[in-house]
Amino acid sequence: MKARVKFVDGMTFVGEAGSGHAVVMDGAPEYGGRNIGIRPMEMLLIGLGGCTAFDVVQILRRGREDVTDCVVEVSAERAETDPKVFTSIHMEYKVAGRNLAPAKVERAIQLSKEKYCSASIMLGAVATITHSWTAIDDAAMPDLLAKA
């Protein structure tokens, strides 16, 4: 796996993945950025959320669960002094589908956390990671991604 990060100007960088995709990263204005991209530490949380969401959906589908949506909301606390590592991370899963088995949802999340999600396992070496989850029947909440 490879990645490349290129300086643009100010505190703006473009990250390019080996898969050919790119993302803009930028700093906050108080650090010389223009606030036009994701902060690098935010990208770590997005990567963690993406890694575990992929796992959970794949595990549930392999178990013949009818998953129609999955959202992982990730929040974190950081140390107050440099290098300001993450000290605690909480992941809230909202998994939607038709007649989802709650035990299978819980098991998929545990398997992701303990066995499959390399981001979770790496970050778990320096931060306490907790999770909560809700299984939602499609009829109860048709658009899980909509913000309240």
From TrEMBL:
InterPro entries: KH_dom-like_a/b, OsmC/Ohr_fam, OsmC/Ohrsf. PANTHER family: PROTEIN YHFA. This is Peroxiredoxin.
